[in-house]
Write a structure and sequence with these properties.
The protein has a single domain, classed as Rossmann fold (3-Layer(aba) Sandwich), CATH 3.40.50.880. It is α/β, with parallel strands linked by helices. A 7-stranded mixed sheet has the order 5-2-1-6-7-9-8, with helices on both faces. Strands 3-4 form a two-stranded antiparallel sheet. Helix 1 packs parallel to helix 5 and helix 5 packs antiparallel against helix 6. The longest helix has 13 residues. It has 6 helices and 9 strands. Strand 1, helix 1 and strand 2 form a beta-alpha-beta unit.
């Protein structure tokens, strides 16, 4: 049975941080569901690229996924105030499932209490909202929490998600197929 991933989109999401993980996870045969936290399936990213989500968040709020992925971008501020998202993150983590957050999105994990005692990283712009993120590390994997710094680290982030969900060998195979310059894949 294939693994599953839920990717949350809000108006103003960072396109690279959402699409790169979706693309690489699908190459690894992970069933990805893109959920809009808005009241429409069409979600506009920070640079005006419109992505059509598969579902509205409400329709899958009680469904279990092997992983939840939260991209950053300026919309993260609205997601931090979304009670549905915060409850979903807490319930998901309580079940020991994988949670990925990139750029400013680790602030959501912090708000949900998921970073207590964990090593993690984030975009430099939000370090004041967090306690002791690991600086200058593209991706940090600590148990079931995977974090990354920003758009420039989206491929490494996506490969770490693939490795965690489907194994290091599959992640390395995908890295090679996309001509990714690093052979080291975080697990």
């Amino acid at each position: 049975m294939n693994k599953t991933a839920l990717i949350l989109l809000v108006e103003g999401f960072e396109e690279i941080e959402a699409i790169c993980p979706i693309d690489l996870l699908r190459r690894a045969e992970v069933n990805c569901t893109i959920a809009s936290t808005e009241d429409t399936l069409l979600v506009t990213g920070r640079d005006g690229i419109i992505v059509k989500a598969d579902v509205l968040l409400e329709s899958i709020i009680d469904k279990d996924f092997d992983s939840i992925i939260v991209p950053g971008g300026p919309g993260y501020k609205r997601m931090r105030k979304d009670d549905r998202v915060m409850a979903l993150l807490k319930q998901h983590a309580a079940k020991g499932r994988i949670t990925g957050a990139i750029c400013a999105a680790p602030t959501l994990l912090s708000d949900a209490g998921l970073l207590n005692g964990k090593r993690y990283t984030s975009h430099p712009s939000v370090v004041d909202d967090l306690q002791d993120p690991v600086p200058n590390q593209a991706v940090v994997v600590d148990g079931d929490i995977i974090t990354s710094r920003g758009a420039g680290t989206a491929t490494e982030f996506a490969l770490a998600l693939v490795a965690k969900l489907t194994g290091k060998e599959k992640a390395e195979e995908i890295a090679e197929s996309i001509c990714f310059p690093h052979q080291r894949v975080e697990t």
